[in-house]
Amino acid sequence: MQALTITSLPSQCFLGEGPLWIAKLGCFFWVDIEKGKLHRYHLGSEQLETRYFPHRLAVVLEAENGKLILGLDRKLVRYDWETEQIEVLCGVEEHLPLNRFNDGKVDPQGRIWIGTLSTRFTEGSGALYRIGADFQPQVQLGNLTISNGMAWTADGRTFYFIDTPTKKIQEFSFDPASGAIGFRRIAVEIPEGLGFPDGMCIDREGMLWVAHYAGAGVYRWNPKTGALLDKIELPVPHVTSCCFGGDDLDLMLITSAQENLSPADIEKYPQSGDVFLVKMAVGGFESHRAGF
């Protein structure tokens, strides 16, 4: 395990998720899903700002012209941080009122990939959607329980995906032009005792950094061999997601949660719900921007 410098930012999220770095703004963003909070942290000034939405806020993504894409309950909206104007783009699963969006990412071509789950975590009730500039959600994977982490290889030809309860990272072929995916294999199987795979990102060496819920850290997996290479140990049990950022893309922002912790647990792990900034030995990539 590498020696790391870890800084905590006290945001005390109930369910911190969806970290995002926007280089143009010099800011990290993340959400607190159940509290409907959007956090923006300016790295240079260390200023933390928070906005509130009366919805479950599942994801924040970068859009064109300095705007953001937010996943509010089951709707995808465009949001202007300066004017606070919200424009609804599309929705999914109106017939499933217990469902909400979960993790989302933008592919190298600017299309949004975003999954759903049931707030009762009903097995097989979620799906993974691809949404392009026509705002017509297309189901890519069905029968999911907790649609979660996603990552693309640098060449844009391979897509990795996590359905959390399976404790597996799936590998798919990815067609850049059409966005079509085809299942290849299980790249990683998480052993017992390491928690559940949640959000993830990919580094410049093609290795996957995966936040482990109930696993107290972010684990580095080799998707070629399935081997565990490294771990960032954190003082919280429920680690939820991670992304690279900073000027050299060698800072990792990691989110965590207080969800499913008793008062005694929170007393034992008081930093639960905070986010952590880690200086990394190997850097990653900028997140892609939605093409609309």
Descriptive tags:
Neuraminidase
Dominant shape: globular
Radius of gyration of CA atoms, rounded to a whole number? 17 Å
Instruction: Briefly note the structural class of the backbone.
Output: mainly beta
Question: What is the subunit organization of this protein?
Answer: single chain
CATH class: Mainly Beta
- The order of strands across the largest sheet is 1-24-23-22
* Helix amount: under 10%
- The average pLDDT is 97
Number of domains: 1
| Count of discrete alpha- or pi-helical segments spanning 4 or more residues | 1
Distance between termini? 41 Å
Strand content: over 45%
- The CATH superfamily is known as TolB, C-terminal domain
- CATH hierarchy: architecture: 6 Propeller
Number of strands: 24
Order of helices and strands: EEEEEEEEEEEEEEEEEEEEEEEHE
The CATH topology annotation reads as Neuraminidase
